């Protein structure tokens, strides 16, 4: 059922769904449009964070009709099963490439085997997939979230030392992202290693923030009711840091540069950097969402018959209040 690229016909999502629904014979396409464009089926995680919105915008801005692309965008709403359904639809629609931003790392072997059998290259972006067989995807591009976690922990060691607090008992509240997602695994590994290496650090709580402000707020507000000591809140993205800060505000607990609780965050979005410049977030480790041009480069290489790098990491940095200016934040793309 895969349709040729040069005379690609758009099988509408509704018609594809009818085929997937198991009708006796393939449904007739509701509408067919001849297209010379490169057709990309993009399965996106959701719209859970500012980072994710910037990532989607980067894909939309890159894969435009003017540049010769048709982008079929599917928002999985943070549900892995939605990603699998979207990918099956992309196969039926006969796309030229599937771009996958996986919610979690596991559970991909079966569906990616179906994609491979259909002869469609898969480009994985942002988070990683953990497959038995690496030939199930063509290339991956994203962040080194293990580096991000190690960087945050290295900064905290130095910061406590500067403050003369290196011997003090430090209680850390950990607001985790979606369980099993690459940024959760990498950033959590960094923190766990830091706790192992520093005898005076301990985890006072670990809650699931799911990378959203609402969930992080709810979980941190509940945790704070216990009255447990908290010196550091390690938030696995900016939106969960916003939720944690909201809960601290309501509980009347000070935080940031001049406060009682050190806030660590990841992403370095404009809103996250603004909070950092204002001294409300002590450290913000960058995670760059502008993957559209990076995925386009991989597709161009494939179109030219070249072999892209299997894994490409984006270079990133980190920010503290004294390293930021309004001009820098203003000119930032996300
Ligand atoms: O996978 C990237 C992470 O997912 C970002 O840190 C977070 O904001 C997003 O939701």
How would you sum up this structure, described in words?
With 334 residues, this protein is an alpha/beta fold. It is 39% helix and 19% strand. A six-stranded parallel beta sheet has the order 4-3-5-6-7-13, with helices on both faces. Strands 9-8-10-11-12-14 form a six-stranded mixed beta sheet, sandwiched between helices. A two-stranded antiparallel sheet has the order 1-2. The radius of gyration is 22 Å and the shape is elongated. The relative contact order is 0.13. The structure holds alpha-L-arabinofuranose (AHR). Residues 48-49, 51-52, 126-127, 183, 211, 237, 266-267, 287 line the site of alpha-L-arabinofuranose (AHR).
Q: What is the N-to-C succession of helices and strands?
A: EHEEHEHEHEEHEHEHEHEHEHEEH
Helix content: 25-40%
* Shape label: elongated
Q: Count the E strands.
A: 14
User: Cα-atom Rg, whole angstroms?
Assistant: 22 Å
- Please report the number of helical segments: 11
Main beta sheet? 6 strands, parallel
Strand content: 15-25%
Strand order, biggest sheet? 4-3-5-6-7-13
Indicate the structural class.
alpha/beta
Ranges where pLDDT stays below 50 over 5 or more residues in a row are: 1-32
Bound molecules: alpha-L-arabinofuranose
Mean pLDDT: 92
Taking the alpha carbons of the first and last residues, their distance comes to 40 Å
Can you tag this structure with a few keywords?
single chain, 334 residues, alpha/beta, 6-stranded parallel sheet, 6-stranded mixed sheet, 11 helices, 14 strands, 39% helix, disordered N terminus, binds alpha-L-arabinofuranose
């Amino acid at each position: 059922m895969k349709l040729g690229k040069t005379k690609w016909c758009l099988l509408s999502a509704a018609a594809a769904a009818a085929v997937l629904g198991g009708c006796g014979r393939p449904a007739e396409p509701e509408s067919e449009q001849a297209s010379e464009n490169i057709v990309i089926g993009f399965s996106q995680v959701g719209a859970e964070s500012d980072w994710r919105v910037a990532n989607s915008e980067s894909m939309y801005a890159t894969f435009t009709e003017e540049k010769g692309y048709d982008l079929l965008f599917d928002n999985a709403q943070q549900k892995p099963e939605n990603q699998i359904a979207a990918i099956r639809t992309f196969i039926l629609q006969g796309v030229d490439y599937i771009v996958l931003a996986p919610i979690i790392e596991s559970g991909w072997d079966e569906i990616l085997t179906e994609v491979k059998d259909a002869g469609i290259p898969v480009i994985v972006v942002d988070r990683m997939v953990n497959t038995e067989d690496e030939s199930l995807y063509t290339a991956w591009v994203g962040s080194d979230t293990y580096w991000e976690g190690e960087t945050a922990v290295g900064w905290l060691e130095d910061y406590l030392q500067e403050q003369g607090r290196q011997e003090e008992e430090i209680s850390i509240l950990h607001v985790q992202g979606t369980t099993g997602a690459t940024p959760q695994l990498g950033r959590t590994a960094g923190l766990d290693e830091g706790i192992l290496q520093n005898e005076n650090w301990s985890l006072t709580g670990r809650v699931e923030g799911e990378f959203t402000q609402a969930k992080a707020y709810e979980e941190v507000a509940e945790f704070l009711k216990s009255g447990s000591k908290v010196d550091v809140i390690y938030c696995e993205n900016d939106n969960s840091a916003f939720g944690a800060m909201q809960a601290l505000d309501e509980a009347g607990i000070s935080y940031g540069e001049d406060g009682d609780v050190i806030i660590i965050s990841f992403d370095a979005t404009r809103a996250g950097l603004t909070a950092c410049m204002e001294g409300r977030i002590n450290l913000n480790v960058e995670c760059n969402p502008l993957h559209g041009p990076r995925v386009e480069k991989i597709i161009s290489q494939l179109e030219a018959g070249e072999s892209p790098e299997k894994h490409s990491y984006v270079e990133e940095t980190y920010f503290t209040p004294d390293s930021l200016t309004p001009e820098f934040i203003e000119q930032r793309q996300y």
